[in-house]
Amino acid sequence: MIALSNYLILGAILFSLSIAGFVLNRRNVITLLMCVELMLLAVNMNFIAFSHYLNDIKGQVFVFFILTVAAAETAIGLAIVVLLYRNKKTIDVQELDSLKG
Amino acid sequence: MTTATPNLLLVLPELVLLGMACCILLVDVCLSEQRKFITYGLVQLSLVAVLVILFLHYNTATTFTFSKMFVIDKLGNLMKISMVFVVLFIFLFSRNYLKENKIPRGEFYVLGMLSLLGMMVLVSTNDFITLYLGLELLTLPMIAMVALQRESAQASEAAIKFFVMSALASGILLYGLSLLYGMTATLNIVQMSQIIPSLSNAQYPVLLLSLVFVVIGICFKIGAVPFHMWLPDVYAGAPNPITLFVSSAPKIAGLAMGIRLLVSGMPGLHIEWQALLIVIAALSIGLGNLVAVAQSNFKRMLAYSSIAHMGYMLLGLLAATQMGYSAAVFYALVYAVMALGAFAILVILSRNGIEVENIRDLRGLNSRSPWLAFLMLLILFSMAGIPPLAGFFTKVGVIEALIGVHLIWLAVYAILFAVIGCYYYIRVVKEMYFEEPETDVAITYPLDARIAISINGLFVLVLGIFPGWLFALCRAAFGA
Fold this sequence. Notes:
heterodimer; A: mainly alpha; 3 helices; 77% helix; B: two-stranded antiparallel ribbon; globular
């Protein structure tokens, strides 16, 4: 049987990776969307691991809600990326600088 | 396992709003461009209906429904009523602007209603699931609204920044919630507050870590330093009516989220979250006020001023006393009204595709429209905290609460920065009253907007003269 801590470490690694992706990524907006997904998966990993070890079904129910909302979120995100490309002809993070001050 | 049928009567306002939003979405598709006023009428009618229901249920004692996931209490009702009022006024002010700028109106109203539904769920949450769903329902329609002006490169840039930041914020919040779930084995907020004191010392570091994540999530949502980066860009990039929406009602919902999670959920950890919030509030007040001074774009200036105001609001929350909480709620309600008025005037002034957004555009407003200039003066002075306007009493409330818990240095700091803050508000007043206008285009706006903006501006004055009743309502919401 795999210990709970292993799952949590995996979750923490995924979470840190996604945060690192946010901070380090200087090129593409799509990568940011992938980081968002990765972050939610890290959270799901935590919830499922806890839910299994606590013998409590509520954590798994929450995961279904997170998955559903994540899908809706990505739909909106991709729609905006399309819009952005149409208006600015680029999805480069560094070129998103017309608003500042 | 048996499941009792939830008491649907308690969530009637939310159900009405949801049902009407879906109906209006359908009706709007079938209407021709000339008949879009029917959509508008239906939207306002349903908001009035929701208000009536909320008023009828106002004095309900605290009750739970949906297996204790949803709580009805006075705090929730007070906040919901103010949010519905604010959204009703937003729609009223935006009507003309949307028509002239060819922004899809039906979509704007429906997205606004759904976002309002999210706010109402968030305010009444007593469970992580409803909290998360409410939060996302509040944010996602708002992101779509920012992107609603499809040809504008600025708006789509603002939308993607808003999207990325709020997705990051909810991810961080969720990670904190997952750790909390692991330690307490419950998703229920009230149950969690009973379990937390019984946790062992070994779990304390994890508890602290999850607390930090939760606080970061909350601060992202209300836009407090250092998690404020998205806010000025969204305010400046979005069309005026949408800035009006983003800047007002969601702040109340954000505070509600903070109260539910920190005050109801983790009262045992109040020393820890107080320390965190002191840092965040002090940074917000300082940076918000200082950076606002340097702005020439009025919307951006108000964005930084909103960051500072959120800092002041957090001062009430971090006092961790009944008095502090009610002061914070009072602050949020009054701030929503002030932001509503300030952006509404920008919406009214924007004509025929010309966006009024720079301080320069307000130059000589007094000679073009003395009444609008006077209302703007009231609102700006109120934001600056000059007596006898409402904004003065909000600041007095939070500072009184701080002194009550012996955080004198923080109170002095807050007052010092309030004085610095006065500078940039008064600078706008100077531009309005003592400069020559750059254009002499006549300002015309419909009668309903005229009445609404007058009510809004004078409300700030009247509330400043008689602040007692609203303050009493806020205190009653916390059982004091």
